[in-house]
């Protein structure tokens, strides 16, 4: 949840102090989220939790959506779209909403089964998948340094996935489930980034439509697979309290991130939020009583170092491509 596209608002004067402060808020929130997910009451199944946190995201986002419609920046509703653009936007919205719905469920399930710390580090694989899509679909060649750093990232993730044994037979299936989260995010964000550039859609509108579609998709999945989780969740106020907390925190993180990258570059904001699994490590020990294994610490250091290297290499490559 730390990787986002920049909002489509007009350029504004940079306020680095404000941007850095907001990115630090994202760092803390991202570190808290796996712990919140694993602190929910016993018996609150991952699918039910994913459904209800998504419902609460819609509830939290709706007032912001309505307020924006009444303001000067109405985004998509300010001007009419051609029929072809409207169909494409609806298609992208449905597809990415379904992806985010699936990733929400995988996030809750992966954190629960793989553990808060291991899942948090696995989610840091986002740049790996993003680079893959860029190479395949955008034909963006990577420098030898970027390839070497990507290899380092893969080594760190493999080491973590095998539980520090290096044996392929030791790879946890739940670690692979956690890897599904950045995989789905990376595909969805490529599609959303195109729409942010082509249409006047605003961050609040992106967030609202995203969580609305995700909620509908998850509701249908729950009704098809296990309707009991919905009835059980509706009948427990403590279940709803934790779902509301997770949904509200998740929504705040999305909106704070968009505002952060309006004041500072995405690369700087990403570098600030990179060490968020360290926050998860501390909270997992203090709040959940989990122990942090040596291989998790080692993997985190390797992954974080690789990510910082990739951010720096990407900035240098962008400067070389920029016209003088």
Describe the structure in your own words.
This protein has 324 residues and is mostly helical. It has one domain (16-318). 76% of the residues lie in helices and 0% in strands. The chain has helices spanning 16-38, 46-69, 83-114, 116-123, 126-137, 144-161, 173-198, 203-225, 228-234, 237-260, 266-273, 276-288, 294-321. The longest helix has 32 residues, at 83-114. It is globular, with a radius of gyration of 20 Å. The two termini are 34 Å apart.
List keywords for this structure.
globular, 0% strand, 324 residues
Unreliable stretches covering 5 or more consecutive residues = 5-13
Q: Please tell me what the overall shape is.
A: globular
Write down the secondary-structure element order. HHHHHHHHHHHHH
Span between N and C termini?
Answer: 34 Å
Structural class: mainly alpha
Largest sheet data: none
Rg, nearest Å: 20 Å
Helix content: over 70%
Please tally the β strands and state the result. Answer: 0
Q: Work out the count of structural domains.
A: 1
The number of helical segments is 13
InterPro entries: EamA_dom (IPR000620), EmrE-like (IPR037185)
Domain EamA: 18-160, 174-310
GO cellular component, one term: membrane
Keywords: Membrane, Transmembrane, Transmembrane helix
